[in-house]
Protein: DNA mismatch repair protein MSH4
Amino acid sequence: MEDDGGEKSSFVIGLIENRAKEVGVAAFDLRSASLHLSQYIETSSSYQNTKTLVHFYDPMVIIVPPNKLAPEGMVGVSELVDRFYASVRKVVMGRSCFDDTKGAVLIKNLAAKEPSALGLDTYYKQYYLCLAAGAATIKWIEVEKGLIVTNHSLLVTFNGSFDHMNIDATSVQNLEIIEPFHSTLLGTSNKKRSLFHMLKTTKTIGGTRLLRANLLQPLKDIETINARLDCLDELTSNEQLFFGLSQVLRKFPKETDKVLCHFCFKPKKVTNEVSGVDFSRKSQILISSVILLKTALDALPLLSKVLKDVKSFLLANIYKSVCENEKYALIRKRIGEVIDEDVLHARVPFVARTQQCFAVKAGIDGFLDIARRSFCDTSEAIHNLANKYRQDFKLPNLKLPFNSRHGFYFSIPQKDIQGKLPSQFIQVVKHGNNIRCSTLELASLNVRNKSAASECYTRTEICLEALVDAIREDISVLTLLAEVLCLLDMIVNSFAHAISTKPVDRYTRPEFTDDGPMAIDAGRHPILESIHNDFVPNNIFLSEASNMVIVMGPNMSGKSTYLQQLCLIVILAQIGCYIPARFSTLRVVDRIFTRMGNVDNLESNSSTFMTEMKETAFVMQNVSQRSLIVMDELGRATSSIDGFAIAWSCCEYLLSLKAYTIFATHMENLSELATIYPNVKILHFNVDIRNNRLDFKFDLKDGPRHIPHYGLLLAEVAGLPSSVVETARNITSRITEKEVKRMEVNCQHYHPIQMAYHVAQRLICLKFSSQDEDSIRQALCNLKESYINGKL
Ligand SMILES: Nc1ncnc2c1ncn2[C@@H]1O[C@H](COP(=O)(O)OP(=O)(O)OP(=O)(O)O)[C@@H](O)[C@H]1O
Structure:
């Protein structure tokens, strides 16, 4: 296991597909020793589902089979990786490595849970592809990383992403969930952040990862969401608990979640001598894991103290399953039998090395004690050497830093060196205002010091063998501890922290109902509200009887912001966080679809319009009754007639579903939909026109509103030469005149059969709509009036 130390990805994923457009994914997290399997039908030729998952796992390695079995019309997963994930290491493994039978056996043996509890028996027949991907992935980890997964230690989940809300990769970009748009794309200031950046006040890497995973795949289970919200209620109403928990969490080492995987993976036995050095590195990692575990277990009683009288289910459950679990005390006791009480987890490299060398109690192993003496002697000799140079060469500010790769080296401020450095100093490198260098003597002492440390590690590992085996037997409690710490980090340091830094009642608890409406009172954009002090809140109401809202308004009036705001609020609510609104009732959303058209086109051979159509097709093919769809200016990228026709027919299609749709548009004629369909509501953004200037109010009003030639007004404000604007104005008035005449003629010649056809079509739509009687009666009246006035 490599020590990644930072936020580098720890996922290795295997991808495989069959000719029926099914894709199997196995995502192995080396950090938490967990394997997540998913299998699904890839409905879009651009691999939207797969991209979403790859984006979610953000892997360091992608394993694929040779590109021979790509389904018709698809590029194949191997090619997909080349095109979109060129920076990720791609490994092609033979088909024989993708063996589903082997995968099933492996997973049965390695999974911490019983196969029946995993549902493996039924899963096996249906989802063979992800098992095949799992076999290849585990094989690669064994061969390339030299790690063997301990039996019954792996956390395995099936269908991971399908238990959660699904947000496709394009929508993740559109909504700026993880990354904000490049400032030049939107013309916004650099201050704009993503939702992830806003909430990233977590203190551990595991907590940050959990937050990212939650934002990309929010929860769908109301019970879990409410459990988190109850926990937030308790944290926000009990300051002592909130501050107590934040302080206690700091006592746990930041890398606690990593401890677990070092016990899950057994390093392969190294037989040849060349690998000896590597072996010592692995021993070192194991020792540091034991020390880290000891430090974490020492902090556990503090957590118990803080959680003693908690009320909310989630915290009480943590208290019961972790704080009252005697296994932790037993593990701690066993560690205490071998490990010195004073040894602590340290982050400073040399301190960490010393702690690791002295981890095991003195007197347990004679060879270890000798190696330690040699380690101390060489360390002392290095420090004496530095003192000698300080005096001999009059370099009082000579420093002796250490890093794990190079060992000790000298650092001397440039200003202290008059002329040239004495010839003893070698490997001279400038580094800022300092010179870094070494000497032959130091290099030789470094080698001896390192070799003494290696000997200490190897001997220590032998002393720790029995202890580590005993810890491995209780791996599940360590998994639990790691999970709990990540969850607490996210809820306390991110969610509760975000709420506590806002004025009281700015963020409120969302209510969830099973099949109710989506009503948000005075909702605000979670990120923009901190940039605009005078951000204007707005409402939304969607229900089965009114499942489409069409939002109109001139450019810059706030339409896109409103769409993004709604989605971000829903995501926040479904990760179990409070939301920026006065009040809200929500129903659980299973997928969010967005068509916003402000993302760079990833498929270089598609025009803006093609991209728009592909995205819309993807929505249509995947939408369910529980989805939330936001469409911004659909149909603007082609001729106005075709664009309008497409926008209209898309609306009609979406209306026939029970999904909630919000549609922002400049096409005023789309408001006609409301006269035919009672479940369409028209809203517009309020704008005042004074002295030919638009004054944006950003508040939503009922009904449509016609603002003549706002495009021209805005073009003038943007600085288009006045002669150009004047010409445009003349052209507009001529077009308008012609249009009026044409409409009059058209009305006269409108064929009665066409009228009858439209009436019939709308009557059929009404028949299948689930509206109440009053609404249907009203819609029939509107239809009749339109027919009489010839406006159909
Ligand atoms: N509710 C609001 N309160 C305050 N400022 C807002 C609000 N909504 C939007 N804005 C500001 O107005 C700017 C323009 O908003 P937005 O891009 O949403 O307009 P739009 O109607 O979608 O424009 P276009 O039709 O040209 O895409 C935003 O960058 C934001 O700074």
Residues 188, 532, 535-536, 553, 555-561, 698 surround adenosine-5'-triphosphate (CB under 6 Å). The radius of gyration is 32 Å. Confidence is low (pLDDT under 50) at residues 1-6, 183-189, 271-277, 599-604. The chain has five domains: 11-162, 220-362+464-501, 366-453, 511-707, 721-791.
